[in-house]
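Data availability (excerpt). The following record was deposited with the supplementary files.
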Amino acid sequence: MVQSQVLDRTFTALSDPTRRDILGFLEHGPASISELAEPIGISLPGVLKHVRILEEAKLVTTSKEGRRRECRLGPGDMHEVSDWIDHYRRLWERRLDRLEAYVERQQRKGNER
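Predicted structure:
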């Protein structure tokens, strides 16, 4: 259940293109809410809402320095997301390998006629 909650929070945070943009900006270093709002083109409260969702998923951390709220990449739970994706990637690769083998068998049967 806990893993499901972590995945839900992380996927929810990553599902929005604005939040992915924020993560992209933060990979270059810390930034304030206003520094994030400018290139994205949304209001400060709008950016703050997105940052809070990223904080809930532990993808971003914030600290208040005077009137400035500084954001930086957080520790995140991406390893659980990565493990989940890898599990299903392997499952689909096996299924596609079986489909490929089936198609090849059918093609060989068609060529023998």
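Summary of structural features: The mean pLDDT is 91.
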